[in-house]
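To illustrate the input format used throughout this study, we show a single complete record. The first block contains the structure-token representation of the backbone; no residue identities are included at this stage. The design step must infer an amino acid for every position from geometry alone.
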């Protein structure tokens, strides 16, 4: 760029020199002042003639060179504007750390932060990260089912739920009959290798301030009291941010290389009032304030540009209402589905066949009823044998997944029977192809290009991103190896 700026200055100077040469009566300062003085007097002898001719030739060469440089400059700048927005002649490299001694990744989750919430209200702090970092253009794609526990654990392991075992927020083990719920910390439920385990296995420190699965002792991770907080929703968000900032006050070599920070908003509000309510706007503004508090604290410690911040959500949110219900009791003329055969109703419908029926019988009979036009909202539920679900959902290979799975249209819910309850709110868990289920991804830090948008991607890629930034070997997972290279700047 330096050479190009210089070349664009050259033509204007030479051009003015040329004009002056053609207009001798107007003396100028363009070339050599002694020559211009001479040029104001017509050449008298062969010596002056030779000087004059050589000057003329030099000027012509200067003009030609300048035009050539100008052409090169304009053609290269128009190329970078139209075809590849961020291409420059020298590919950008990752920025070096200025204060920290080793890379640090801070993974932040704002639960239920639907993609687009960042425009509901001014969010200057989130937008500061976006403007100076890399953003998933149309949001981050959650895994199916688009629920909190399956998704947070996919982010942590790079695995689809069928592989990491947390196939729902709650489910029954098919052989033991035991129930998994969100407070189950027995490692037998939690398969795969979460990122905090990978980090400590490589001799680095990890600190988790809430994250589903982080309280489970697995391998070399033992959720120590000082570096692994046990979930407690009553801890104010400010306290969580300040605790994470406190890690940066440790001696350099003791600062954890990986940290998590979790906020349960705006999911809580989304369930109560749906995604389009002033309560959501307020909750989003509050999350933005927390990001501002974090940035301030990191800046005060001189490490903001050194820390790799990855801000995500686990899923989006869609409005639900009592007019969008499907009742299993309406299917009775075709098949009776008792409540104890149903593992979950909404938005993932998961059913074990009632005694005396095969799974395929149940699917056939339910579909007959749903398509008959006699079941209210029946057309908004499709039931599958799990192995017949679309491949893109990656939701069949685990025996923890019940044999019959129903997919609901956006915003619809299933209930066992009619009640007088009237309510509208919000929900998530639906097919991850629905845009409303998307959430945010922002990467900010030395290895993220500034102000760049990348195409949307699935959250199973994030595990590999973290291991790449920390330069450690990750466990096998469902992310693609090339993904990190496509999004991170190469090391300097
Ligand atoms: Zn939720």
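Output of the design step:
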């Amino acid at each position: 760029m330096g050479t190009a700026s210089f070349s664009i200055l050259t033509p204007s100077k030479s051009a003015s020199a040329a004009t002056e040469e053609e207009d001798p009566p107007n003396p100028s300062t363009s070339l050599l002042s002694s020559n211009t003085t001479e040029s104001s007097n017509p050449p008298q002898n062969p010596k002056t003639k030779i000087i004059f001719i050589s000057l003329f030739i030099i000027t012509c060469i200067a003009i030609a060179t300048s035009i050539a440089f100008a052409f090169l400059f304009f053609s290269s700048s128009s190329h970078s504007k139209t075809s590849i927005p961020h291409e420059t002649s020298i590919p950008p490299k990752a920025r070096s750390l200025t204060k920290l001694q080793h890379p640090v990744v801070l993974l932040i989750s704002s639960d239920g932060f639907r993609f687009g919430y960042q425009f509901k209200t001014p969010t200057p702090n989130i937008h500061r990260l976006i403007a100076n970092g890399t953003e998933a253009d149309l949001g981050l794609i959650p895994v199916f089912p688009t629920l909190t526990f399956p998704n947070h654990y996919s982010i942590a392991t790079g695995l689809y739920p069928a592989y990491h075992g947390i196939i729902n927020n709650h489910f029954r083990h098919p052989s033991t009959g035991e129930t998994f719920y969100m407070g189950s910390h027995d490692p037998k439920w939690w398969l795969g290798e979460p990122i905090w385990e990978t980090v400590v296995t490589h001799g680095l420190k990890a600190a988790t301030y809430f994250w589903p699965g982080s309280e489970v002792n697995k391998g070399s991770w033992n959720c120590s009291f000082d570096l692994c907080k046990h979930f407690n929703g009553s801890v104010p968000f400010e306290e969580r941010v300040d605790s994470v900032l406190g890690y940066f006050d440790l001696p350099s070599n003791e600062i954890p290389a990986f940290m998590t920070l979790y906020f349960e908003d705006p999911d809580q509000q989304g369930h109560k009032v749906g995604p389009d309510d002033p309560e959501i706007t307020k909750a989003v503004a509050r999350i933005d304030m927390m990001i501002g508090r974090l940035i301030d604290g990191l800046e005060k410690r001189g490490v903001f540009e050194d820390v790799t911040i990855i801000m995500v959500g686990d899923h989006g949110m869609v409005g639900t209402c009592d007019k969008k219900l499907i009742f299993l009791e309406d299917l009775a003329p075709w098949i009776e589905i008792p409540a104890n055969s149903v593992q979950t109703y909404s938005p993932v419908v998961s059913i074990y066949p009632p005694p005396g029926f095969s799974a395929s019988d149940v699917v056939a009979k339910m579909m007959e009823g749903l398509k008959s036009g006699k079941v209210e909202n029946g057309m908004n539920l499709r039931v599958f044998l799990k192995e017949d679900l679309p491949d893109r959902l990656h939701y069949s290979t685990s025996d923890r997944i019940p044999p019959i799975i129903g997919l609901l249209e956006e915003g619809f819910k299933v209930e066992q029977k009619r009640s007088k309850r009237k309510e509208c709110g919000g929900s998530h868990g639906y097919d991850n192809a629905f845009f409303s289920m998307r959430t945010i991804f922002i990467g900010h830090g030395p290895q993220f290009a500034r102000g760049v948008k990348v195409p949307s991607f699935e959250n199973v890629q994030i595990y590999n991103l973290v291991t790449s930034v920390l330069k450690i070997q990750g466990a096998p997972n469902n992310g693609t190896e090339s993904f990190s290279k496509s999004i991170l700047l190469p090391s300097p």
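Structural context for interpreting the output: Confidence is low (pLDDT under 50) at residues 1-44, 67-85. The longest helix spans residues 46-82.
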